[in-house]
Structure formats: structure tokens, C-alpha cells
Write a structure and sequence with these properties.
The structure is a homodimer. Chain A is an all-beta fold and about 160 residues long. Chain A has one helix and nine strands. Helix content of chain A is about 5%, strand content about 30%. At the A-B interface, strand 1, strand 4, strand 6, strand 7 and strand 9 of A face strand 1, strand 4, strand 6, strand 7 and strand 9 of B. Strand 1 of chain A pairs antiparallel with strand 1 of chain B.
Chain lengths: ~160, ~160
């Protein structure tokens, strides 16, 4: 199989210089703000994105060197396959996050629900479309027990 | 910014040999079955994924050569920025699809809600987690008007 060459479309700037206090998913720490700084040549690609409340960011876990085919996730000390967890220690080290769009000014997309490190290379932005991206009747395997009765486990924020 | 080298983790096989009759998103044609054939070295990564009802597949639009920074989406003859549409003619040509897991046998993940071409290089699989991935109070910009009152536009299946 052929290698695929990916060229970042910009850089994500966030207040998180390292993993300390970062949420495992942006929805667990809502008020932090981040910015996608898109290369000028792609700024027209943001046209009409402001009509959407949310976007899906696809990016590179650029600080991660290793891959772990089975690993313990942040939520519990039990090993699972890498494709059943959201760990960054994965083949290809590509992350996705759903973020909340605040505003777009020129080549910059301001957002909240931030869960990525400062300096993260951005690969793509897609509009979050409720008619495609929300799912009903979802079973979330080993994760569901950690969110029973609407509780939020404390391991959702890294220490 | 540095290039990122991506090595496919496997191949997706589907009944769609070309765009004809393919849905723009898998949820619009539910009964078609596809298979992710993972490289043997990654098969342990599928461990415990079967407890999830849905997965997010990240893959390469390998048949697409061009990029269009503004383009008409399938749903309407009006140009929007590429980051406000889900067109494959995008920088980096990376696609994501939420699919429904049917079963996992060894290195093979069988799924429905298929919207990718046969032979698509697979880059990553993530578990779909309702506590992270569903969003409430979503505005979907120029797309919402096409789904008013629960209607499904006919352009959701390509001709």
C-alpha cells in the first residue's frame, strides 16, 4: 500500500503547552479558546462555515512518537485495542475533535471545546452536520459504565 | 510546516466500484455492507471494539486528484468554502465516516452505512463515543434547509 503525503493546512494555537490540565475531549472543559490559523491560500475555504455551530478538526498528534496497539486509556487501567480507545499513541497519530465555532476572521477560526496542544498541525476542517454526524441508539462499549447516570469521571481532565 | 507521512492500516472493500448510486453519507443507504481489512500487525488493535455500536473511519479519497477551495456541494448548486462542505475535492483528501459495526472476525471489521469506494485506503478507526461525539443545539448552516421537517433530499444518493 502506498504512503499518503499530508501537508498541514495551518496550525492550531491553544493555551495548552503540555498535557497538564488538558481535557481528554474538549466537551469536558468548555470555556477554553483556541484558534485555527489557516494558510492564506486556504482562507477562502472558510467561506460559509460561520453558519455552522460546530466543526470537526482533523490534526496531527505531533508530539507523539510511539504507537501502542493495545494500551490503557485515560479512563481506566485496563488494556484495550487502540481502535477501541481514543489514545494519541496510534498508527498515523491522527486526531479528530468536534469544536464549537465562535467566530471566523479572515484566515482564523476561533473555537471553544479545546483538547489539543498548542502548535498542533491542522490537516482538515469539516462542518459538523447534525443530519450526518449525530447517532441515536449508540452503545459505547467499555466507556458507557464511566458515564452512568450522567456522571462525568474525574479522569476526563489530565493531571 | 512539515509534511506528515501516513501509512494505511488496511483497505476498505465495498460494493461501490464507482460513484454511481453511492450515498453522500452512509446513513442515507443503510443496508449495504463493507469490510475493513486491517493489516495483520494491527489486528490486536480491534480488541474490544465489538462492544461499540459505531466506529469512525478515517480514510483517503484515493481517486481524487484535484482540490477545489470553493465548490458546489452535491446538495445544491451554490458555491461554499471547502471547509463548509464535505466534498472529497479538498486539501489532503481525507474523509471520515461514521459506520455501524456488524461484527469483527480476526483482522476484519464488517460494517454497514457505507459511503466509500471499494479499495479505499484506511488510515484509522476510532470508537464512536456518544458521550464525546454527539452534540446538542447544533446549527448546520446552509445544510439545515435541505432537511426541514425530517425530509431527506434526493441528492443524498449520487446518480
Amino acid at each position: 500500500m502506498k504512503e499518503i503525503l499530508v501537508n498541514p493546512i495551518g496550525i492550531i494555537n491553544t493555551p495548552f503547552k503540555n498535557q497538564k490540565n488538558i481535557p481528554i475531549q474538549g466537551c469536558f472543559k468548555e470555556n477554553i479558546e483556541g484558534v485555527c490559523n489557516i494558510l492564506d491560500k486556504y482562507s477562502d475555504g472558510l467561506c460559509d462555515l460561520e453558519g455552522f455551530s460546530h466543526a470537526i478538526l482533523i490534526y496531527h498528534f505531533h508530539k507523539i512518537k510511539d504507537e501502542k496497539i493495545k494500551a490503557e486509556p485515560y479512563l481506566e487501567p485496563v488494556e484495550h485495542g487502540v481502535f477501541a480507545i481514543r489514545s494519541p499513541y496510534r498508527p498515523n497519530k491522527i486526531g479528530i475533535s468536534i469544536v464549537k465555532i465562535k467566530k471566523i476572521i479572515d484566515h482564523r477560526l476561533f473555537f471553544t471545546e479545546v483538547d489539543m496542544l498548542d502548535g498542533t498541525p491542522l490537516i482538515d476542517i469539516k462542518p459538523f452536520v447534525k443530519h450526518f454526524d449525530n447517532r441515536e441508539n449508540v452503545k459505547s462499549g467499555w466507556i458507557d459504565k464511566h458515564f452512568e447516570n450522567g456522571s462525568i469521571p474525574k479522569q476526563t481532565i489530565l493531571s
